[in-house]
Amino acid sequence: MKTAAQKNIAVLNHPLIKHNLAVLRDASTNTEAFNMALKRISYALVFEATKFLPTKTVKVKTPIKETENEIISDEIEIIAAPILRAGLVFSDIVQNMLPFAHIHHLGMYRNEETLEPIWYYNKMKGKFKNPDKTYVFILDPMLATGNSGYDAVHNFVKQGIKQENIVFMSLISAPEGIERLTGAYPDIRIVTSQIDETLNEKGYIVPGLGDAGDRIFNTV
Ligand code: URA
After folding, report:
1. What is the pLDDT of residues 4-38, one digit of tens each?
2. What residue's CA is closest to ligand 1, atom 4?
3. Which residues line ligand 1 (CB under 6 A)?
4. 170 C-alpha to center of ligand 1: Å?
């Protein structure tokens, strides 16, 4: 049985996801192949992450007949918040799938000694007209220590966004990061394609895939 803290964690379990994860993990995969595999998984993550969005019924005329259809509710606001820089890889896909989403970049880098995030960019204070109806997708391929994830979630919760309307979307997650986020915010949702073993002493996910930003942007 799932504990309260695990109830909102979705792990993609699919042969195509596993296949593409193997490509991503392989240290010999070049940047082009890496980014292709990452895009393939990203679409699946976005489908899963957006499963709970409210819809409304509209009438649509096909060439044959009028029908009732569901579309995403136009009463809600959707925010996609990529944590720079690796999260950018997801924001393109989210924008493609949800063209009406607002993209709010969260600039943080990691202090390599303390593993704590240091903010350098956040322009989104006080922007939400209706926090109750705002849905937030925090985007970061690697949920490692959860320190930057925690800061990102906190940033929205303190502005009145409901925890259950916040999704942390990651490619690979470490148990430590999941614990950190769900320990503080038990009602947020986490969507990931894999939960790995642990973190190493530098805060990297084991086995992971190395530094996601370096591999996406070819700065290895
Ligand atoms: N960030 C990364 O890019 N990789 C990790 O393993 C952990 C954090």
Report:
1. 456 799 999 999 999 999 999 999 999 999 999 99
2. 211
3. 86, 142, 144, 204-205, 208, 211-213
4. 11
Q: Global pTM?
A: 0.94
3-state per-residue secondary structure call for the chain: CCCHHHCCEEECCCHHHHHHHHHHHCCCCCHHHHHHHHHHHHHHHHHHHCCCCCEEEEEEECCCCEEEEEEECCCCEEEEEEEECCCHHHHHHHHHHCCCCEECCEEEEECCCCCCEEEEEECCCCCCCCHHHEEEEEECCEECCCHHHHHHHHHHHCCCCCHHHEEEEEEEECHHHHHHHHHHCCCCEEEEEEECCEECCCCCEECCCCCHHHHHHCCC
